[in-house]
Amino acid sequence: MNTRIAFYLTIFTLAVFTVSCRKEWNNKIQENQVGTKSLNVPAGFDWSVSRDVTIDGSYLTSSTVRITSPDERTIYYTGTGDGKPVTVNVPIIYNQVNVNGIPFNISNVKSQYGSFATRTSISDNSKRTKNATDQQPQAFMGNESAQTFATSFVDADGDGVLDVDDAYPNDPLRAYNNYFPAAGFGSLAFEDLWPGIGDYDFNDLVVDYRFQVVTNAVNNVVEVYGHFASKAAGATLNNGFGFSLPDISPDLTSNPANLQVSGMEINENYISLNAQGLENGQSKPTFIVHDNIFNLLAQPGGGTGANTTDWTASVAYDTTVLMIVPSGGNYVMADFGLTTWNPFLIVDGQRGHEVHLPGFAATDLADPAKFATFEDDSDPLNGRTYLSHRNLPWAINLPASFAWPKEKVDITRAYLKFAEWAESGGSLYPDWYLNEPGYRDVNLIYNP
Q: Does residue 146 sit in the same domain as residue 264?
């Protein structure tokens, strides 16, 4: 599992997960030898979960406020201090943030002015106490001068989580928001002409994604929201989109009463769902987000697709929110296996025609006869899927919102380091997707 999670910290595009070895062709995927450091992930992007932390505005009175991670490598907030509270999203592994270089513990104390993070040290001769249990006013050092706060422990909903830490202070069933990815949305882009190379423009489906996991006071999952923002559909094909969760707890899906899914955009007649909202005929829980992208992104006319040509009107992005609700057990985040999710494109309503990230297993409903045809160089039994002879993929997963090529523009022309990165197995130009000098031809990238 550690190898697979480490792999997910990369673009996923040139590495392969190890999945359970069953007799069927599509579950005999083994990990290949491509290194797990094939992508430079931007500072601040964390694939782990996180929580919201509010810092009292009384600390934020200097002319410039800078809130960072403890090592100061990740900036959560910069701005002018105006005395108003600031809420930042901090990976759950941190119990501290820095405010203008000064360490602050993530505190359970709430002042009359709002919630805040407590500075980690106070001078011994200050006669100030860091113990708030006596309910007495306390003085804390701010950025420039001592600040006095009347403290109290408030738990309005009585769930055992103080309001300062409770994302749902008036709801005893909910307490925390956890996110995957933690620092923002990830981005997927697909080429739908697999197993042929086609125009290789990677704009046939572009979708940003983020999972929000709501947990209660004892960190059991109440519900999971999958947010999927469809942004571009540069194709004439009516493509669908879904994902599987190969590492979800079997207990969640073995009993139909234990999990329910809603929010899907299913309007065609080729998807079959069970009473839970999962796709029928799958050994791994499979979720269909939508079955036709053009039911979400209307074609503006005068061209193919949506949001891929400069000479047609842009259309509004569409966000689909799946709601996954567990019941019948005390499940934790790890039971859902979100970090090893397996997204895929369904080509033009043909349920057996799936396009996955390279190295990922196709679902039980995919047609295995398409492997190793045209330009595809897959060998599922030996750990190779959805890669060409040149190591080029048909799907990419980025830790940043993707600026996709214009219609009919090969990605290797728009992103000048993409081919070298792919063909080298990720050893060259792992930051190919960034807007660095010499990395892009901006004239070939769609600008909404």
A: no
Q: What is the DSSP string of 313-342?
A: -----EEEEEEEEE-SS---GGGT-GGG-E
- 175 occurs within a structural domain: no
What predicted TM-score, i.e. pTM, was given to this entire model?
Answer: 0.71
DSSP letters for 122-137: --GGG---S-GGG---
Q: Residue 411: its pLDDT value, please?
A: 98
- Does a structural domain hold residue 158? no
Interatomic CA distance for residues 158 and 68, integer angstroms: 32
Number of domains in the chain: 2
Cβ 244 vs Cβ 340: under 8 Å: no
Residue 403 lies in a domain: yes
Flag residues of the chain having pLDDT under 50: 1-37, 108-152
Q: What is the total residue count of the chain? A: 448
pLDDT in tens, 316-364: 999 999 999 999 779 999 999 999 999 999 999 999 999 999 999 999 9
| Residues 299 and 195 placed together within one structural domain of the fold | yes
Query: Helix or strand or coil: residue 448?
Result: coil
Instruction: Supply the range of the domain harboring residue 98.
Output: 50-152
Shared domain check, 354 and 247: yes
Sheet holding 354-356, edge to edge: 286-290, 240-244, 342-346, 354-356
How is 243-280 classified by DSSP, letter by letter? Answer: EE-TTS-HHHHHSGGGEEEE--B--SSS--B-TTSPBT
